[in-house]
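Give me the fold.
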Amino acid sequence: MRLSKNFTLSEFTRSATASRKGIDNTPSAKHIENLQYLVSKVLQPMRNALGPIRITSGYRSPALNRAIGGSTKSQHCKGQAADIQIYKKGVMNNSRIYDYVLANNMEFDQMINEFDFSWIHISLKEEGNRRNVLEAYKDAEGDTAYTYVASNPVL
């Protein structure tokens, strides 16, 4: 199923963990609707401006989310979030995504610079977006922790 000119549903549901563990990762009609909203408002415009974007994690069924140790509040389980990367001439440069979103004052709920730009998490709801910008890092115990960079940034 095509979500937009450049994105397909299978990009958002593909999971090696789900395949390996036999986990059903099929989204509901509402989840697909949420993914289409995310794609139309954020990912396709970004793709048009920056070039190909790789989806490393999109929709996650509750069972898949548990299997990977995801947050019980994960917007991935609602079809409202994607983890993305961008490569240019074989070099990953995810700060381009981060900078583009902020420079273009795009609507989003959360944008997370994950582990020094290893990937970018971006989420979008139909209403009530917080525009929170965070950074994820490993704390002294090796657990994932987050620092707020900005809330409702406007450039």
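The mean pLDDT is 95.
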